[in-house]
Amino acid sequence: MELFISLVINGLATGMLIFLLAAGLTLIFGLMSVLNFAHGGLFIWGAYTGVWVFQMTNSFTLGIVAAILIGLLLGLVTERLVIRPVYGNHMQQILITLGFMLVLQELIKVAFGPDQKAVFPPDFLAGSFMVGDIVLIKYRLFIIAVGILVFVIASLILKKSRIGLIVRAGVMDKEMVQALGINIKLVFMLVFMTGAGLAALSGILHAVYSGVIYAEMGLEFSILAFIVVVIGGMGSFPGSLFAAILVGLAQAFMAYYVPALSLAVNMLLMTIVLIFRPQGLFQVKG
Amino acid sequence: MENLLELKKVEAFVQHYHILHDISFEVPKGEVTVLLGRNGAGKTTTLRTIMGLNRVSEGSISFKGESIVGRTTFDIANSGIGYVPEDQGIFGGLTVGENLRVAMKKEDEKTTERLEWILELFPDLKKFWKKEGGQLSGGQKQMLSIARAYVNENDLLLIDEPSKGLAPIMVDKVTESIQQMKEQTTIVLVEQNFMMASQIGTRFYIIDDGVTVHSGAMDELKEDKQSMKKYLGIS
Amino acid sequence: GDDGEAASGDQDVVKVGVLISGTGALETYGLQTQRGFELGIEYGTDGTNEVAGKKIEYIFEDTETDPTVARQKALKLLEEDEVDFLVGSSSSGDTLAVTPLAEEYETIMVVEPAAADSITGAEYNDYVFRTARNSSQDAKAAAVAVAGEGVKIATLAPDYSFGHDGAKAFIEAAEELGAELVLEEYADQAATDFTANIQKIIEAKPDYLFVVWAGANTPWNQIADMRLDEQGIKVTTGVADIATLPSMTPLVGMEGFTLYYHDLPDNEVNDWLVEKHMEEHDSPPDLFTAGGMSSALAIIEALKQTDGDTDGAKLIETMEGMSFETPKGTMTFRPEDHQALQEMYSVTLEESDEFDYPVPVLKEVLTPEQTAPPIMNQ
Amino acid sequence: MTAILETKDLSIAFGGHVAVNGVTVEIPEKKFTSIIGPNGAGKTTFFNLLSGQLSPTNGSIYFKGEDITKVSTTKRARMGIGRSFQITNVFPNLTVLENVRLAVQSKNKVRYNIFSHFKHYPGFEKRSLELLDIVFLKEKANAIAASLAHGEKRKLEIAMLLALETEILLLDEPTAGMSVEEVPAIMDVIRNIKDEGNRTIVLIEHKMDMIMGLSDEVLVLYHGELIAKGTPAEIVENETVQAAYLGGGV
Amino acid sequence: MNLRRVETSTWIYLAISFLLIFIPFIVTGRSMQFIFIQIFIFAIFAMSYDILLGFTGIISFGHVMFFGIGAYSTAVTLGRMDATIGSFVLGAIIALVIAAIVSLIVGALTLRLKSHFYAMLTLALAGLFLVLAEKWRSVTGGNDGFTFSLPEFFRDSETMYWFSLLSMVLIFFGLRRFTRSPFGRVLMAIRENENRTESLGFQVTYYKVLASVVAGVVASFAGVLYALSLRFVNTAVFATDLTIDVLLMTIIGGVGTLIGPIVGAGLVEFAHHWLSGLADVHWIFERWIILYGIVYVLVVIFFPLGIVGTIQSKFMNRPVRALRTNRKSDGKKENRKGA
Ligand SMILES: Nc1ncnc2c1ncn2[C@@H]1O[C@H](COP(=O)(O)OP(=O)(O)OP(=O)(O)O)[C@@H](O)[C@H]1O
Ligand SMILES: Nc1ncnc2c1ncn2[C@@H]1O[C@H](COP(=O)(O)OP(=O)(O)OP(=O)(O)O)[C@@H](O)[C@H]1O
Ligand SMILES: [Mg+2]
Ligand SMILES: [Mg+2]
Fold first, then answer.
1. Which residues cross the membrane (chain E) (predicted)?
2. Partner residue opposite C196 with nearest CB, options A10, A114, A127
3. Residue B10 in contact with ligand 1 by CB distance below 6 A
4. Fewest C-beta atoms under 10 Å: which of D15, D158, E34, E68?
5. Is A110 within a domain?
6. The pTM is what?
7. Buried b (16+ CB within 10 A) or exposed e, C287-301
């Protein structure tokens, strides 16, 4: 039983971490229908900058703020330079963001050096405590909490405001939305920046979780995020959350019971979902 | 009489094709100006150019006395122009209600009133309020597109072939709605249905190959068999 | 290419082509090898860059950690530069893509720091000599450090060749020393959550957990978080390069091994290396710096013995069984598989006053004989 | 008079909304049948069912007596049911000529040839140009389809449909948005096909003069149901039709 | 595009191919020849990708799986058997057959999955092949890989050069004919508007699957040559990086042109070689990927048709097609899918 609980908690934590990573992607894809393969680049920049500030100032909060800021800033740059010319064209989006991903990743090495860097949780989140025989790692509980928070906030915003509608309409027919008097470019930019900010936030959170950062982790994790987004149904927030937790749990349990398959579990899950439910588990409109 | 909209010797490009060569016309406030011309003459392009969707290379377009050349589309729209595009521009993935909500600039009482009026005019929209725009029938889409331009209070409406694909009974209704609208708003209408155009129009311009070649009062045109034949092929 | 010395085509020159990962995931390793090699030439020739009357020239090439590029660069070195020796490379894959060329061109290749057993095992050819330790040597060192009669051991390794090789070799060596294996666990190399694996290990209740690990996602934090020590399980592993030491903070107190840390070996060569390295690069030499130096020293020693003759067959004859001094003490190329037997170091990871990361402190020097790996090329 | 197409109790519902409701009708061979009805009556949907774009929730479709309810779009096209689309549906980035040539190629059953060059079929190009000429698009043969004005795209649609030379032509508002001048010309094109007398044509239109001038028989759909059927003259007189569809003015 | 122009271009291509035959007499170094060989191999790989991306409009992130299948089949066969031409031929046949079967199955999935979903699925499948190659160590040697020896015939660098060149030229003309056949025209129609193609009476399924098989088999053959040229294989032949590389080559050269991927392969390989060789001049060249990435982004924005595509549309007045989909209609297609 302890084993089970412990696996569940760890699976949940991993899942939340993946969800945070996928949230920005979902937002950008779900609302703007942009396939952003540079997501991983924003993620590592968030991780490196956040960690750097965290280590300089010894304040985790400042680290998080710095990560989000750099995310917003890079989001702005990315949107203006790279994404803007290719709205509405998936093929070009995939291509251009892949190229930009390479640039972002390589620039990390220029800015921070090619070495991997170790990261430790802030004191108040370090270590673990025991409840009965179950080990609870503090930082994981923290992650779970942040994940839920982000989910709730994002869902509220999307439900309540007209912004979601406008963005979706803008994706379908940009000219028409403008002809209705909406500055869609600005709206798109803000949404993209938010997505980028989320990516960067998940970067710093992830850095502290795994204890190490390196430039290549961007691509690695953005693929994971894409897998989750696909499984959940492109653009669905609840879908991403569900899929992320599914993947997290599957990883935890597979690693325990069928370690031979743990390498392939994400890919297998996605393959199965795509074959039997091509639109993802949570289908969304638009 | 004051001209709400004025185009002078406008030349415009679509991508790198020179489509409009010399478009000049005036839209007096409170009237319905009709643009006529055969397929591919440049009527749609003219409306799109006014909306800032095409690049103007020469000439001037002024709205309420101010030049709007080079301004962004949303800016032009916000200065008081509503647009019903030729291809309807329905957001296929949004419901009928959402399509209207995106268009609504304000959610005040007046707007609600207008909305009610519109739904009375086109009961189908009410019936299919929750249906996705993409699933509507051709005519329903047309109604939605017109409705979307009506919900806001605009000074000028650009309407591109509203009768296309509408059942005769609906054509009547749309005609009637435009009649009503023209009390409050100035209208530029592109229309192939000559019957309809001649009913509502006060003044006409004929466009041929990107050039405004003829103009006058609508009533005169009906009599002017020669021009009708020459420019519109109607005999 | 990075010409160490001005090239001149005359007879009295020995050319060495050094393949390193200058870019890509392993570029820090590449840099270490490069610096070590340069210093090795300097030391071995007393700064003259000459041995047996011949000038030594060396050319560095970046394999970009890509076998295709590695092969292309090796061809360039062999054909255009007509090198007499190859050295390299940082990745085992790159190395394997090149070793057949050594045989084809009858040119000696000194493998450094690639560790895959197969290089001197299944893929062995006569022209390949390795100054780097191989994975089995690591494993033996680890076994010697912890195993004993009746000790229960478990392993945790990444799920690919490197991990499997390492774990297998460790288990063999440890069992020979009388230890008992209770669990052999493999984790996805890209995983970030190791708790399930650690959970299993806790349940198996070993005395020691041997962790083979390379790559960025490390399990150390989680091992600490899961409180293995409180369950009476001691962790042991290899200590890698300085950049990874901070991430090992949670393992302070651990007994393990390393193949090199700058203040462990006690010999003249190493003293010189540390001093010189500090002087030139303002940092101590790292994990593979000593290896890079060793490869240079092996070549110099061989040339001394052949009196500058670079004929492949002659060199093979000379180098088989040849001993030479390196920062890691005396190394000897074992005649059977051309693997250099070498010192390894049994260490304890301790907090340090000097640095904000833990450092390995010498417990025992493991002799070349103690860590001699099985011969695998037959 | 034999029926070439026949539907029995054909229905389709989208969610709760029944768009076509129990339509049983026979489309006579080699005749000209028109379908009218208010917007949203289910005309296009009915076409979609006939051509296989949609499959019915209920009922069946017979082509020359054979049940084709479950036959795919492609197969139906090959059997001889061709259609044009209400929303212009062409290959936007190919030239006008290539658009038509694809249809001609399909008609000539050159489908899986991977070895010969497409230019080995000069006849295709000639035929395509002929067809473009018929719909007044010949000068635009080398233009990219996406750059055509709306009315021109409609003409291209028709040319592609004609190229298939199918036994049945389902035309969905072929002249919507076409200029006043050209409507009669397109009507002539359609009339010529009719006069050749070996094709069955089904037309959806809102232009009553066209309906009156061409049809042998008119079907009226209303809220998905077939409410009237008869000669054009009968239909115009029908009071229900007048109220629901024609209105007063036009 | 009249008959005469096609013929001239054919002559030009033949002339270039003929000139390329003599390269080994000028460039005698094996290392430079090796670069050329790599270009030919990647040109073949990129052309196969172009069949999917440029001609049928299918994005695959897992095209490398066929390349890997080719490389491993050859390597394993040659590694286990005597190094004779016979075993090479056997290896190549195995490679092509496996690739054909796999691509048939994977291609059939295009029916169910649209655009990015299919892309993700292929990514996953290629990932599974990578895992397989890592896990099945008794055959593949794990991720370190293994070396093998070549049949006498291929040991000579010049022979390898001519063989790769010949393969590329033959495949180029073969694929060119393929894309210009009536069949190829239908592929283009599918790329533009799948539904419409169907209602013209073409069975879209068969076309997509066959295109996928052709692409898979050709990619596999590129893998065969790759293994031969390297005499070594490891799991890198299944790495996603390779798919990205080949994607870049195709895009930079020009999708939907066939000659584009060849140009792209040449350009990328040479740029790589020279830029990284400049590392001594300035450190930035060590990070040449940055330059590469930037150039690539610029190409996508300003020359979405790639080099060859841009030249064709500018100077030869060919209709512009390929990537330039009508943005508005693209968005609308999305809507319909959602419906
Ligand atoms: N994107 C484009 N590229 C090239 N030419 C274009 C493009 N869009 C329109 N054109 C051309 O511009 C001309 C005018 O088109 P426009 O759509 O304005 O005509 P129209 O008068 O509205 O015709 P219709 O009555 O058929 O709607 C046409 O000849 C058309 O081919
Ligand atoms: N895919 C769909 N999903 C849901 N409802 C649909 C779908 N297609 C059509 N409908 C609905 O079915 C009804 C009939 O539509 P249809 O397009 O057949 O009308 P129509 O008679 O062709 O009208 P029009 O003359 O305006 O083109 C409409 O109310 C429409 O909203
Ligand atoms: Mg128009
Ligand atoms: Mg309809």
1. 12-45, 51-73, 85-109, 115-133, 160-178, 209-230, 242-268, 288-311
2. A10
3. no
4. D15
5. yes
6. 0.84
7. bbbbbbbbbbbbbbb
